[in-house]
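Our collaborator T.R. sent over the components below with a one-line note: 'Predict the complex.' Nothing else. No constraints on interfaces, no templates requested, no preferences about which chain binds where. So this is a plain run: every listed entity goes in together, and whatever single assembly comes back becomes the starting point for the next discussion.
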Amino acid sequence: MKKILLSIPVVFLFIVAPAQTESDIEIGVVERLNEYIPLDAMLVDENGDTVIIGDLIDKPTILNFVYYRCPGICSPLMDGLADVMDATDLVLGEDYQALTISFDPREATFLAVRKKNNYLNLMEKKEQAEKGWQFFTSDSASIVRLTEAAGFRYKATGNDFIHSATLIILDPKGKITRYMNGIYFLPFEMKMSIVEAAEGKAGPTINRVLQYCYSYDPEGQKYVLNITKVSATLILFFAVVLLTVLLIVRKRKTNKS
Amino acid sequence: MSSSQTENKGYKSYLEEDGGRKGIFKWILSTDHKRIGLLYLYSMMGWFVIGVVLGLLMKLELIAPGQTLMGAQAYNATFTVHGVIMIFLIVIPGLPAVFGNFMLPIQIGAKDVFFPRLNLFSWYIYVLGGILVIISLFGNGAPDTGWTFYAPYSFKTGTNMLPAALGAFVLGFSSILTGLNFIVTIHRMRAPGMTWFKMPLFPWTLYGTGWIQLLATPIVGITLLMVAGERILGIGFFDPAKGGDPLLYQHLFWIYSHPAVYIMILPAMGAISEIIPTFTRKTIFGYKAIVFSTLAIAFVGYFVWGHHMYTSGMSGTALWAFSLLTFIVAIPSAIKVFNWISTMHQGSISTEVPFLWAASFIFVFMIGGLTGLVLGSLATDVHVHDTAFVVAHFHFIVFGGVGFAFFGAMHYWFPKIFGRKYDSSWARTGWITFFIGFVTLYGPMFYLGIKGMPRRYFDYLEEFHGPNIISTFGALVMIAGFLIILVNLVKSARHGERTTEMNPWGGTNLEWQIPTPPPLENFDEIPVIEKATYKFD
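Returned assembly:
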């Protein structure tokens, strides 16, 4: 009975405990649907010229943040983007466009160009992508303004970054209308979000599960590993004890006739 | 053919034996395994109706593109609660809690389970878990993470995640205790002479299931506690910002939840293995093959969880290893199907209602199983993952498998349980309506998925409209079938024609050799088993 009484506050704690709120998060995506990105932010284009992002956005736009030296999720993300742009029947550069921006201010134009050529060679719609998918670098101040406005949060670790994979869909006026998380995208969802963005209508994020790019150090994560190892050992221990008792200890006469 | 005797004197059935209690206390204080089985049946029936209504709401939302009935947030909450109820409150307890409780002791020649009080306690825990799920619906809004509670969303969402997760946690204990109880019962209480290989197949599947419940369920308990730690204390097990690993959540979750699929399906296969010999008047083909394939499924089923995570970012080696194991686990399932079909071969089949359910079980289970291989292959999975195809696949397996077997078992054991007959022509009408509705509901979703319609999405493009209308129409037909079945069974249980026939179907196992409905302690004298099971004279 005592145990039952003790468990009541625990149950209560479960019910009232607040979640980490979305705006607290350090890394990941804080959704800012229906807000505008700073249209006066400056980017450096593939020719090394400085441009203003507001001048580029005149149609539904897929915005994504990566860094070109990224050893992790950025390439799969852009693979996914290239695949879905190949798969959809919308015309890249006419119905919509894609802007890829490096969030590492140390990266220079040549890296952007090299990355772009990589992806163009992979794509069937190479001609459309030439014009419709542009790669940029930028200065640290513009990057901070853009990523913060888009709710894209990342953290530097040494030379690399921990960040998540997401596409941000903007309407022709620069308003955020949708987030698409992950690295595989359905042509369905992409078309739907472009159609909605063209109308300036914001849609809900469907795939809520973020995928991250991070370096995981199992050696440094002893507490997690210990929890899983200790509990696995306990579970197996009790199971083995049970089976042993059932098999070895003689069957008592439970059924008296 | 076994003789059917009528015997109506000299004993009090378990339904009349009330232990001196009154009203509802006859039920909620009784430690009789048969009454506990029925307690589970009634509570699950209530949940099932709620789950069906939520499912119907989703299908109605999808009847046309755009927002028809509810917005995105409401839709997210609907599919989450639908999933939590259907998985944790219905199919996981499912056949073991209802028919396992009722039939296991009888089939092995025992008077009750080994721990009768623990058995009743498990039901109380089940009810508590259910209440927590209800609590989660109020307050900050129903949870919207999907029944899988994936990190990081489960610790970031502002909705009532924790009561739902705690509910699942508590329900896990009910499952563990039931599993433990069955394992010990099977080891300790088989009637004299009932060696392992004379034991009927339904108890065998409960035995395999019991071990899965015991070994796998604690993992999801620990995982849900980790989510709670993440949410309340911000520990960072799954948060890369704090050095945690978000993939770890998926691993831990599926290490439980994949074996849980076998918790659901094994007893369903057990029930089918009971029904088919009875209605074909033939010994089950390959008894030992079924037993060993049951154990093989229970064992290999532990090592395939990664196939839920092909697109989550695992190493290439992990991917193909999980894919290979997934193909291997399909083999014992196929063995069972071959055995059932071979049992029917040259049998003298009588197409009574339970047999119709069993035969249609094989049909939908095959579709579910074969489409599972499409998802188990790496390349095709990338194409259809997270689409309606996946939803169609697991409804064919989980609902088609467990649901059809459940209804089959219900119609099979109904006269024994209630001592009354049901109206068999209504039961047939219900079955055919349900079956047609089921295929019409989920069939088009395979097509939609291949065409690229995502799951968990309240809206779609115009080009997907046609199949969605068919699917919603199928849902309505299926629900009509379900209502026919439900009304027929409920009515028959209350007012149906009384029967005391011991063996209406001519079955061979022990439950058909005791009076109908069974007396409190099942057997006056514990039987001594000499013959192998499923032997027709």
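Summary for T.R.: The longest strand of chain A covers residues 61-66.
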